[in-house]
Amino acid sequence: MSPRPxxxxxxxxxxxxxxxKKVENPGKLLMRVWGFVLKTYKIHxxxxxxxxxxxxxxxxxxTMFTRTLIDDYILPLLASDHPDFGPLAxxxxxxxxxxxxxxxxxxxxxxxxxxxxxxxxxxxRNQMFAKMETLPVKYFDTHPHGDIMSIYTNDIDTLxxxxxxxxxxxxxxxxxxxxVAISMIILSIPLTILTVLMVxxxxxxxxxxxxxxxxxxxxQQTNLGAMNGFIEEMMEGQKVVKVFCHEEENIKxxxxxxxxxxxxxxxxxxxxxxxxxxxxxxxxxxxVLCAMLxxxxxxxxxxxxxxxxxxxxxxFNKSFSMPINQVSQxxxxxxxxxxxxxxxxxxxxxxxxxxxxxxxLVHAVEKDGKLTESxxxxxxxxxxxxxxxxxxxxxxxxxxxMVLDGVDFGxxxxxxxxxxVKMYATPGQKIAFVGSTGAGKTxxxxxxxxxxxxxxxxxxxxxxxxxxxxxxxLRRSMGIVLQDTNLFTATVMxxxxxxxxxxxxxxxxxxxxxxxxxxxxxxxxxxxxTMLRGNGSNLSQGQRQLLSIARAAVADPPVLIxxxxxxxxxxxxEKLVQDGMDKLMKGRTxxxxxxxxxxxxxxxxxxxxxxxxxxxxxxxxxxxxEKGKYYQLYNG
Amino acid sequence: MIKTLLSQVKEFKRASIxxxxxxILEVLLETMIPLVMASIxxxxxxxxxxxxxxxxxxxxxxxxxxxxxxxxxxxxxxxRASTGFARNLRKAMFDNIQTFSFSNIDxxxxxxxxxxxxxDVTNIQNAYQMLLRMFTRAPASLICAMTMAFLVNxxxxxxxxxxxxxxxxxxxxxxxxxxxxxKQVFSKYDDLNASVQENITGIRVVKAFVRxxxxxxxxxxxxxxxxxxxxxAEKLVVxxxxxxxxxxxxxxxxxxxxGAKMIVGSSLTTGELMSLLAYCMNILSSLMMLxxxxxxxxxxxxxxxxxxxxxxxxxxxxxxxxxxxxxxDGSIDFDHVNFSYKKNSQEHVLKDINLHIHSGETxxxxxxxxxxxxxxxxxISRLYDVTDGSVKVGGIDVRKYQMEALxxxxxxxxxxNVLFSGTILDNLRWGNKEASEEECIRACQLACADEFIxxxxxxxxxxxxxxxxxxxxxQKQRLCIARALLKKxxxxxxxxxxxxxxxxxxxxxxxxxxxxxxxxTKLIIAQRISSVQNADRxxxxxxxxxxxxxxxxxxxxSNAIYQEVYQSQxxxxxxxxxxxxxxxxx
Lengths: 636, 586
Hints:
The complex is a heterodimer.
Chain A: H1 10-16, H2 26-79, H3 86-134, H4 137-142, H5 145-187, H6 189-236, H7 238-243, H8 247-300, H9 307-349, E1 360-367, E2 370-373, E3 381-387, E4 392-397, E5 402-409, E6 418-425, E7 430-434, H10 441-448, E8 456-461, E9 464-465, H11 471-476, E10 478-481, E11 490-491, H12 492-497, H13 505-514, H14 518-523, E12 531-532, H15 541-555, E13 559-563, H16 571-585, E14 589-593, H17 597-601, E15 605-610, E16 613-618, H18 620-626, H19 629-634
Parallel strand pairs in A: 7-14, 7-15, 10-13, 13-14
Antiparallel strand pairs in A: 1-2, 1-3, 3-4, 5-6, 5-8, 8-9, 11-12, 15-16
Chain B: H1 2-6, H2 13-45, H3 50-99, H4 102-107, H5 110-152, H6 154-201, H7 203-208, H8 212-237, H9 240-264, H10 270-312, E1 332-339, E2 350-357, E3 362-366, H11 373-378, E4 388-393, E5 396-397, H12 403-409, E6 410-413, E7 422-423, H13 424-428, H14 437-446, H15 450-453, E8 463-464, H16 473-485, E9 491-495, H17 503-516, E10 521-525, H18 529-532, E11 537-542, E12 545-550, H19 552-558, H20 560-573, H21 576-581
Parallel strand pairs in B: 3-10, 3-11, 6-9, 9-10
Antiparallel strand pairs in B: 1-2, 1-4, 4-5, 7-8, 11-12
């Protein structure tokens, strides 16, 4: 029932993911990735493609040179009595120029690709994050956090590989294969056919081996997942293992999993390792066959085929099969990258939180007995409400008057968890929700600031339907202290200032004092400038709560939503927290999910919830007199 | 560190030695191929000797076959050696962790141990395979090709020597600088991801304070900075390719020019020139490979260090010789016990504790956070060893017992307790493997867990998810108590084990204890006065010392701290939720 599914850590999730899941419509996805890159880096990419061309051609040109060297220079030189090395020097100079261009081009495109890759990834990350921030709370409640995290880490990583490595390499390979193929055809058609045949054999072998290893890879991945799951669980519970002397059973179970993983990993790796030598030797065979056939052709001088031609062809033979192997290796990583790209785009395509609200929150000032807008902070706030029908604007003072009328709600439309909730809170009142876990207390507070939208009924805030209020303004008017305190990596000062970004240091300290947090903050090694990390892991639970109270206090909102912590903190800190909360609540309309007797007793009105319905309401005394459920519960 | 790791190769020593042997053989065969090639061209093609071409072709086919064989064997043994090594490393670590005492465990973070057992081992596995296969292959290939080049023509081959020296110097420079940059980049990258994580878990706070734009701006600034750092690091790395190409091309041109002159001068043949050119790629690409291996291996040293740390950690508690196996009764005595978590620390967590608890007594323990309540009870089942003094259970020093025997008879329900994935019965049987279903049900009834288990669809066969995520906190605690009860212990320690259980059920559990297991000594740590006030005696802890020890009434009359806690809880600081929870699922 709790709307907070806490996903397992990113590490766990990473291994749970099944590999090789089919991506639908890979072409479209690929286009989208490139569309994204090209949007910013069109000119860059044109230069890159031109440079790759230049570099490949320079390379091919260089390989062709071996033939020219032997046929056109060395053999004539050998034949002449007075060898003149001038033409050779000139030829070498020419080739050197080609090479220089090739090197320059390779450097240029590699360097440009850094900007393209890193820039695109930066833009993608920025877009993802900006998008994520607009997503409704529901998204975070229904997606394991580890999965979301994994998009930022693993999926972006595979995309980086694809953009920075796979793409240039494939382009390079294609251009190489095509130009080498053309050169080979020019040199000798029979030898070309032979080479191509051998490449087909090679790809066939690679494919077969990949198929075999694929099975083991899936197995390895599954075993790895099981193994890691077991390790995570047992490391988490290591102390319990000790207390129950369960070490031996644990080792037995571990050995089993470990052996399974070993067998599948061994097999998977074996096949991968074998692919290389197979291709290399097939390449050698192809080379030998070409040498033999080419030798025959050269001796017979078939179609003007020469010794120099054979020398060049043999080099081409190698440069033809190598890129094809590379491409087949890259294909795997492209498939992986596309699966990652899909998750990235799924996030970007997620519908943002909608906001049709038009009533805004403004600083208010009273002029001639009427409330109007003020450009400066006045300490008073008003709702600016524009009426389309009459083309008039009126201002309603923000007081914190809240009415819920016939509210129905379910996280899932067909499973209603709140039924016909009716309640009201007048400005400054303190409303307490009590009830067992799953009764719907947290759910009600989720509706007030529109983390979720109600299915039926109405919620009115100072007489205005909250659906008409801009979400940002609605939320700005409400402070919130949650049970799970979330702090950010920043100093204590900045963490409190989160409530009001333009708060001065003095305001922050005043808020901390109000929340009873000042005392412990001053005892921290660097006081207010102490850095908090890992959700304030260097603080105790109670101290984290005090900080989150201070954070709400600095925002100084007219309405407060408090979710009291249930976890047991020691009596003294608890007193501080309690006291801080009490001070914060003073003079504000407060909705509190109560876990403490004192909070409940001091409330103006107590709502007793059971299975999504308010079954009793009234003050502590009234409810006791009623001798209903509350009375029963109170007296245990 | 390397010695520690390598000692785990064990049965894969043979494979570990054979892999490089086969790799070197493969390289030798590969080196011979250009030689045969040269022969085909010089003696076959140039002289028009078809017979020679075919003879040499056959030789090459044999060489290729042998190459294939050695390659396959090298690959197979390499896979076996590295995955086997990984298996042994994982096992050695896991086994060693099982011997860890609590203080050993405290030294490492849970996440840290998990990373060591998973990611770090994978890193080492890859690095080891790389070392066995590529690290022998690349230098062997380099040396062979170089030797052959020198054999063919020493003068021309010296060009390669110069190229190798030049290229290795440049690559070294680039790689060493780049790794330094990349280390910085990756730590920044981790920070960036940490901030994403914070935003995901704290999304309610972000939204409640309308800080979406603020967070986005902050993120984009960090992202921009990371981008700059990546560019700076990668700018260095992209130098690799052009430098390599430049060297290769220079070699080809140099050799072509000088080679042509030598051929004309009749000190070189065309075939030899071609072999030399073929060696060029071999030499330089193996150099490139070496520089990559260098980077990979340096990156994995951090993993190796972390693994060695776990392997070298010695369990600091061991069983005595001739251990006592039976705990006579449930009496507990503390004699002048000092205790600190760190050795040689002057600051003691527990100071001069003297306690004498009779067998079968129920003892409540109360005190603020950090008053060392848990530390006190953890000494009883020897989860830690005392620094000074002695702890006796049944009149015998806990250090004289076999630890397993002691812990089976002193049952502790830890404050941070966990259930494991498996059925409820599986979990209960952690307490006693042989427990029958009836015994399990009995224990659950005692712990008031039976009532909610019976309402579950599969009852005692209900599957508990990892970490017990599908049961509530109170249910989890009750299951943990039942699990501890199944040991039929002489001493039962509950360390704040009913904090999430409502007061009524809490009381019911305590009543059941009193009636059903009267002979078991029970120690109950609690925050709530109500949980301890009916105990035979209550210990009040404060700053590692016993501030008071007596019955509820005695303490209420004489102990200031106890009075304070009592007052605050009676005045309504109590837990309303607990009252409510009584109606839970009813």
